[in-house]
Amino acid sequence: MPVSNSEFPDRISNSPTVEATLTDEQCSSVDRLLRTVDPVVTELGERFAAAGHELAIVGGPVRDALLGRPVHDIDLTTDAVPERVLELVDGWADAVWTIGIEFGTVGLRKNGRQVEITTYRSESYQVKSRKPEVSYGTSLYEDLVRRDFTVNAMAVRVPGGEFVDPFGGLRDLADRTLRTPGKPEDSFNDDPLRIMRGIRFAAQLGFSVDEKVAAAMTAMAERLRIVSAERIRDELTKLILSPNPRLGVSLMTDLGVANYVLPEIPKLKLTVDEHHRHKDVYEHSLTVLDQAVDLERARGMEPDLVLRLAALLHDIGKPKTRAFQPGGKVTFHHHEVVGASMSKNRLTALRFPKDVVNDVSKLVSLHLRFYGYGKGEWTDSAVRRYARDAGHLLSRLHILTRADCTTRNRRKAAALARAYDDIERRIERLAKEEELSKIRPDLDGHEIQEVLGIRPGPLVGQAWRYLLELRLEHGPLGKEEATKALLRWAEEQGITPGKPEE
């Protein structure tokens, strides 16, 4: 299957002439792609062709098919304007939606297959604009030249199955390199988010970034300021959940992009690890992220956004808490508390959901708790508190704590692993006796009011917390013993039990 170039004008300076043919395996991949979407897309192609319009599968589906990756969403492009697309699918599609029509996109569903059709277009941002200006084109070349990277600037025409690759995307797939169809400066000026997309693709696909593209990313990183926090968050999420998030974070940092996305990360390079186990806390944090990912996989887990963000951010409080002691020792007292606050602020600014923000912040605040365990001298009550404070995050805290051990001293690493094995066994034993994450006092708020003869108010909360501490310290007391303890506490507090005031 030859690469179609004949309809296209001369390549611009950054796009070398393409002289390539698909291998038999790649031909099979394109054929599989067409079979996957057949007959819905084929019918659409015939419908558009009969009306004198072009239609092609474009971008991600073509790239993934050639890489042998699963193809999920089908993106189509056409010379028909959105209003014309609506006319062509009227009465044929089972459902149509126009939520993206202002950007030239019409969505539809037919026989259970969902596709999006976008008019040939280009997007550009004014210097201070957060919303792109969309203009429609009239040819497939005009559409492909304005796409982000050459590996996403390939298309398959329908019907017919002609493979179109004007900018060497096939070659770049083979080289595992990210280049832009035109000058990278033009591409990133059209949409600065492409800087983050490129870094995310590198992490997802294991690709390298072309030198000219990397230089443009660095030079234009500040343009990310005009992109909405939500769009940056979405790209960052995909990066963190990628097979190699360390690669993405390293690229962001090395290219200066992290300064506008996660500025706390490059600042870790200024901090020397107090144990001199790593060049700096930055390298330690990347290692913890790596080890958390490895532990996820070893336990058969799906990529966990909360866990991975906590692993990356767990030490971001160190630069603010660094203190130099006599003899050259460096300390970072309470960096977990400061880091929890910083994590919450950064993730909130990036518009992450509240539950993600709170969970990551809590893990950061708890990540040092285990290091007080020593050689197992914690009482059962301390173990209960550890499990209860972690709550639904306990399994993630187990992984984060283990991942945080990056010492090269094998004896020390083995000792830490044995200690954590021990605390997990103790939690499991106690969990069989009671649901640790749901520990409550033996008396609830209503019972406390009845015993003390008080109305709802702060005093009930104080009594509740007192009974909770007893519960954590001694395990289940039963209502009779809890009532006696509550009365003793009330006497110490100068509270005379009686009937609630009306």
UniProtKB/TrEMBL annotation:
<dbReference type="InterPro" id="IPR002646">
    <property type="entry name" value="PolA_pol_head_dom"/>
</dbReference>
<dbReference type="InterPro" id="IPR003607">
    <property type="entry name" value="HD/PDEase_dom"/>
</dbReference>
<keyword id="KW-0175">Coiled coil</keyword>
<keyword id="KW-0548">Nucleotidyltransferase</keyword>
<keyword id="KW-0460">Magnesium</keyword>
<dbReference type="GO" id="GO:0016779">
    <property type="term" value="F:nucleotidyltransferase activity"/>
</dbReference>
<keyword id="KW-0479">Metal-binding</keyword>
<feature type="coiled-coil region">
    <location>
        <begin position="413"/>
        <end position="440"/>
    </location>
</feature>
<dbReference type="InterPro" id="IPR050264">
    <property type="entry name" value="Bact_CCA-adding_enz_type3_sf"/>
</dbReference>
<dbReference type="InterPro" id="IPR043519">
    <property type="entry name" value="NT_sf"/>
</dbReference>
<dbReference type="InterPro" id="IPR006674">
    <property type="entry name" value="HD_domain"/>
</dbReference>
<keyword id="KW-0808">Transferase</keyword>
<dbReference type="Pfam" id="PF01966">
    <property type="entry name" value="HD"/>
</dbReference>
<feature type="domain" description="HD">
    <location>
        <begin position="281"/>
        <end position="389"/>
    </location>
</feature>
<dbReference type="Pfam" id="PF12627">
    <property type="entry name" value="PolyA_pol_RNAbd"/>
</dbReference>
<keyword id="KW-0547">Nucleotide-binding</keyword>
<dbReference type="GO" id="GO:0000166">
    <property type="term" value="F:nucleotide binding"/>
</dbReference>
<protein>
    <submittedName>
        <fullName>Metal-dependent phosphohydrolase</fullName>
    </submittedName>
</protein>
<dbReference type="InterPro" id="IPR032828">
    <property type="entry name" value="PolyA_RNA-bd"/>
</dbReference>
<dbReference type="InterPro" id="IPR014065">
    <property type="entry name" value="tRNA_adenylyltransferase"/>
</dbReference>
<keyword id="KW-0819">tRNA processing</keyword>
<dbReference type="GO" id="GO:0000049">
    <property type="term" value="F:tRNA binding"/>
</dbReference>
<dbReference type="InterPro" id="IPR006675">
    <property type="entry name" value="HDIG_dom"/>
</dbReference>
<dbReference type="GO" id="GO:0046872">
    <property type="term" value="F:metal ion binding"/>
</dbReference>
<dbReference type="Pfam" id="PF01743">
    <property type="entry name" value="PolyA_pol"/>
</dbReference>
<dbReference type="GO" id="GO:0008033">
    <property type="term" value="P:tRNA processing"/>
</dbReference>
